Every structure is written in C-alpha cells, then in structure tokens.
Amino acid sequence: MSEKPLSPSVLTPDRNFGEMRLHELALQNWFNRRFVIQNGFPIPVLFVSPMDAYAHYKSLWGSAQNPFKYLKDMVDDKGKKVYDPDPAPPRYPFISVYRKGWAYRPTQNYAYQEFRRVAWPTVNGVDEGLTRDDLGTVAKVKMPAAWDFKFQIDHFAATPQGQSEFVRRVFRSFNLCGGTPQTWIPVVYPGHLGVMLVRMYMVGEIDSLTPDVVEENKQTEYRTSFSATIEGYSPDLSYEMIPAVWSVVFNTKAEVEPGVLETLYTQAFDLRKKEDNPRFNTRVPLPPRS
C-alpha cells in the first residue's frame, strides 16, 4: 500500500510557524475587534517593547508598507480628516504588546497521547487520484502540548479620557470570571487543530504609568499597563501515515505471540477490494480500487 504526502488543504503542514506568533495574531485580532478609536478604525497594535513603541510606530507610519494607513480615512465629529494634510505624524492612542515568556502547563498537557485518525490523505477524493488503497491509511500525530504565553500590554493615550475609556473596555473584556479576570479568544492553529477557543487571564493589576511631572513643552503621555497570559498549545506537525484497519485475531489461547501482533499492527488487512462491506460500498462516489 503506497503512502502519499498529506494534502495541504487538509492539514496545512506549515512547519515554519512560531507558537508565540500564532498567539500574538490571536491577541491582535482580539484587540482589533474590541478596542477601536471609532467604528471601523481599530487602535494600532505594535508588537514591540513599550520603550520603543512610539519610535517603531513613527517608522511604520512613514513607510510605504504602513499597516495603519486605514487611519488616514478617519474623520472627526465635523467630518474633517484627522490625518490631514498628509503626511501627518502618528497620533495617540496606540497599544504595544511585549513578549514576557513561556511557561509549561502540565495540568492540561496531552502531548504524551497520540491522535491516530487525524485525517485521510486528501479531502477531494477522486479529483486528486485517491484510490481505495489510500483510504487504508490515516495520519498519526501527537496531541498538542500545553504552554502559557505571557504578554505585557501597554496603552498610550493623549488625554485622561482616552486612558479611562481603555480601562473601561479592559474591565468589560475580562468580565467572564468569578475570581481572576479572564476571557476566551479564538486561536487559529495549523494542522488538525484548526480554530480553538483558549483562555486568557489577567496577571496582577492594571497600572497607570503616567508621569507625575511632565517636562516643559512636552505632551503628557497617559500610559496604562497590565500583563496577560494566554493558555495556548503547541501543535505537533510531524505526521506519520499508518494503517487505518488491522486484522482481528480469534484465538482460544490466553496469549498471542508478539511477532504476530506486530505484523497485524503494521500491515493493513484490505477490506475494500472485496465486495463484502455493504456499509463502505454505500459511500458515493467511491474511488477506484487501485
């Protein structure tokens, strides 16, 4: 029975991803949906140290690949563009997200278990040349390992009202709790996991880092900071194709020799080429036998 590589449309076997980056993208999506300057205009989110946030923001704003150029279409309550004339310097508010570290979570770890029937070699069937022999193999992979991804989140505002609005939205976003402030966010994992809802909770308090004394001729920066942890996962993408069906041993003896069991485990017993499987034969359309 020949083995075929898994179809990218099924398992998306992209091994060039980083677990931290997966959860950063989920966090960015969460911010874009819940924290906006006005409807349709999310607060810019920067994945950088808070000390370098404004300089990085300014550099991105002046680049040809400015990811926040949608703000140039934003207008004030009088219908005037906020960033007009162009080029205008980047303005508050914005959010920085800084990586704080990783921690293993043994209470929800499943990496010692195997997920055998992950997927068939393809989902498009006959269109990709699938045969009945191919249906005799499935993908085997380890279950995901549980890791905590820690972030420091800082919000920068130009006014006390902007700071207060951010804090209010944080309160309402982490309100799914009876103890620790927490919520659930969707994370898109590659491979067989797909989209999963994972827990995110606040660590410690929300701190105001606004300076008590502002330098002369300098704008006051109202900075708010808190830490959050995402209870995420590290998926295994080392797929191995194994037989989907095995022989069954009927024996009156108490034991079966190990060599026999090993043979039965590693070799599929073909049930598809025979016409004695009415349940299988009712599946339409069926691929050719070989």
Q: Could you walk me through the main structural features you see in this protein, from its secondary elements to its overall organization?
A:
The relative contact order is 0.18. The chain has 6 helices and 11 strands. The strands form 3 sheets. A 6-stranded mixed β-sheet has the order 3-4-7-10-9-8. Helix content is 19%, strand content 27%. It is elongated, with a radius of gyration of 27 Å. Strand 3, helix 3 and strand 4 (94-104) form a beta-alpha-beta unit. The protein has 290 residues and is of the alpha+beta class. It folds into 2 domains: 8-109 and 145-234, 2-Layer Sandwich (STM4215-like), CATH 3.30.2000; 114-142 and 239-281, no CATH class. It has helices at 8-11, 19-34, 53-61, 160-173, 258-266, 278-281, and strands at 36-38, 41-42, 45-46, 94-104, 114-115, 137-142, 145-157, 182-189, 194-208, 222-234, 240-243.
H/E series, N to C?
A: HHEEEHEEEEHEEEEHH
Query: Radius of gyration, Cα only, in angstroms?
Result: 27 Å
Distance between termini?
A: 10 Å
* Structural class determined from secondary elements: alpha+beta
Summarize model confidence as the mean pLDDT: 80
Beta strand count: 11
Largest sheet: 6 strands, mixed
Task: Return the domain count.
Answer: 2
Q: According to CATH, what is the class of the largest domain? A: Alpha Beta
